[in-house]
Amino acid sequence: MDPKKIILYNAFKTYVLIVVYFFIMKIFGLDEIVELRSLNFLFVIWGVNATVKEIILNNKNSDYLSNFGQGIATSLIAVGMTVISLIVYIGFIDSELLQLMENSLVWGNQLSLAEVIFAIAVEGAASSVICSLIVMQYWKNYKKRI
Hints:
Elements (H helix, E strand, L loop, with lengths): L2 H25 L6 H4 L2 H20 L4 H30 L2 H8 L9 H27 L7
Helix pairs in contact: 1-3, 1-4, 3-4, 3-6, 4-6
């Protein structure tokens, strides 16, 4: 399978998991618990791992840097889709989410949507690299097992 299709497919799955997770948190009133919001990191690791695993096992590509880059691409695309969804959600569905973020100890007061989006994009980019590094530590020696 084409690596671009693998990346897009797993990025979309990661994005869907993150969105469903946040809606479940909203439904059960858990959206105010900041610690639970950080669990989306696990979904990103899962998506990156799915991409790297499929590329290694199905495409027989065990090049570390190539797979590392494809892992980063997967998570960056998922983060990008999540940021766009957040803009739409805050802008058209629930502007009170911005107020909820202001009231948490993590964000601070008088936030603009642009500041929140910028912070999430930077955090997402950093977590993309970190998640890809974590996953690649597992898969880096796979070619020895082929």
